[in-house]
Amino acid sequence: MSQNRYAGRHRPPAQPSHGRRLLVPLALVSTTVAGGVVVRSAGASDLSPEAAAVQDLSNTVAGGYEARDRAVAAAGSDRDAARASRDASRAAVASVVNLTDQKASDVDTAVEAARKAEESKKAEAAKKAAAARQAAEDARQQAQRWVSPLSNYTLTSGFGWRWGRMHPAQDLAAPVGTPVHALSTGTVIFSGWSSQGYGYMVQIRYWDGTVSWFAHNSRLLVNIGDEVAPGQVVSYSGNTGNSTGPHLHLEIHPQGAGSVPPRAWLAQKGVQL
Ligand SMILES: [Zn+2]
Q: How far is the CA of 273 from the centre of ligand 1 (A)?
């Protein structure tokens, strides 16, 4: 067939002679480049087609070296980058470790603060409890203290035999209307007129079971069942009932039983008549 079959569709096949032309120069270039001869410096205009081809190849090879150098440089850059990356990683790890240490430190601080707060709270509670105990103790002592029935008086008849009969009391002479005080905390068990010669009388049972009798009063201020406090005025002294003059007739009945000498008994409570 003829070459016309390819017209308009493909170029005719290249002349095989062109490839052969390059065989020698290629070997020459290899030798030239290996020998360090600079082929590229030759002027392009003076070169034969073969020499031009050699120069082209030389340039290409030189370009290859440059590419290699660039690659090496790039590789160096990559190493630098890798080193930087590694350093950054180490820094990040160190940072994380530092952060972790910081967080641990924060936790320690928080735990310590919580412990101190707890201690403070316990100390505060203990202080309040101690204060409450002290207040209760103070209140108890206040409630259980003993006081004198009169502020101003003159001791007259004491506990004992008088005129052939037993006087189971201490008489305290005082003007009519002198305030009479409860000896301690207690409950009024009698407040009224006595048909047995005691006149207007008040009987109080105290917190320890002792009962006091206040006789010959002019006026009564409490009723049976009333709770009274130490020193509370429960009546005014007088001269009612079987009495020869204004005075308070004081009897003390421990546990409500037989009477005992009031001065000695009160002295045991710290009250001196
Ligand atoms: Zn008396």
A: 15
Residue 257: how many other CB atoms lie within 10 Å: 10
62 has pLDDT over 90 = no
pTM of this prediction exceeds 0.90: no
Cα–Cα–Cα angle for 57, 58, 61, rounded to 5 degrees: 85
CA dist 219 and 237 (Å) reads: 7
- What is the Å distance from ligand 1's center to 62 Cα? 145
pLDDT tens digits, 96-148: 677 777 888 888 888 899 999 999 999 999 999 999 999 999 999 999 999 99
Q: What per-residue confidence (pLDDT) applies to 86?
A: 78
Q: How far apart are the first and last CA of the chain?
A: 163
CA of 228 to the centre of ligand 1 (A): 23
Q: Cα–Cα distance between 234 and 147 in angstroms, integer?
A: 13
Question: Where exactly are the structural domains of the chain?
Answer: 17-143, 154-268
Give the whole-angstrom CA distance, residue 140 versus residue 232: 17
pLDDT at 187 (0 to 100):
98
The domain 154-268 is classified under which CATH number: 3.30.1360.120, 2.70.70.10, 1.10.10.60, 3.10.129.10? Answer: 2.70.70.10
pLDDT of 267 over the 50 cut: yes
Distance 154 CA to ligand 1 centre (A): 13
Residue 200 makes CB contacts below 8 A (sequence gap 6+) with 192, 193, 194, 215, 216, 217, 218, 219, 220, 235, 238, 240, 241
